[in-house]
């Protein structure tokens, strides 16, 4: 049995003449909180859409828990959860319990009530809010509900695409704490995409950096810098094509 949660080989996606994701090869070990860092437009969302079977690759391949994303999409979908940065306005008129129960039923989960409570507990949404309309929640709480939704099927791999985009600093830090807690308490591998160097440096030990669709670094975050300042300096060097020693 492979120890890899995720492996991509030459993964490529073009839109007409634009190569949005260009020959990306990376390996994510099981249990990791893995960082996928890149500026806006670097190709992060396109990569995640391919890995979650929402978009076919133009070339290359990827395996999730040993299952090929192109030839075994249903097996892959059963193993993943996805949180994107889009906050769905359609959740506003539901309570967190109703919203999660709806998705639990769609997923065919039998023990809906217990599963919903377990997931809301995992993301730290206090009991007193669970029966209130999501429209009355703060943005940070709404993001927690989205993460809880992604946890419903007990995913092996959780994809988070810019999960803290649009959050203020306290809400961001709350979400970081939650992601750390999930990584240590749940048996879930996390693939975290972000343009925020501090976020990736704070949370992830192994990272990849992507620039205009190409991988420009892959390895321990520590190798780019032990402190955030050095990390950011070297990152800027990488993103602007400079070398570092
Ligand atoms: N469906 C599409 N059709 C055409 N071009 C697309 C499509 N989706 C993405 N692109 C282009 O591919 C490139 C990579 O976009 P992508 O959304 O993957 O980047 P990103 O790193 O997630 O950026 P951001 O952080 O801004 O979301 C961009 O130039 C984008 O305009």
CATH class group of the largest domain: Alpha Beta
How does the major sheet shape up?
A: 6 strands, mixed
Q: In angstroms, what is the radius of gyration? A: 18 Å
Poorly predicted regions: none
Alpha-beta classification: alpha/beta
Task: Tell me the number of structural domains.
Answer: 2
Could you tell me the strand content as a percent range?
25-35%
What is the number of helical segments per DSSP (H or I, 4+ residues)?
9
| Residues in helices, as a percent range | 25-40%
Could you please say which CATH topology of the largest domain applies here? Rossmann fold
Query: Which ligands appear in the coordinates?
Result: adenosine-5'-triphosphate
Name the overall outline: globular
Q: What does the model show?
A:
The chain contains nine helices and ten strands. The chain has 245 residues and is an alpha/beta fold. It folds into two domains: 1-79 and 155-213, Rossmann fold; 91-154, no CATH class. Strand 7, helix 7 (169-185) and strand 8 form a beta-alpha-beta unit. Helix 3 (96-106) crosses helix 4, helix 4 (112-122) crosses helix 6 and helix 8 (197-203) packs across helix 9 (228-239). The longest helix is centred in the C-terminal third of the chain and has 17 residues, at 169-185. 41% of the residues are buried. The site of adenosine-5'-triphosphate has 12 residues, from strand 2 and helix 1.
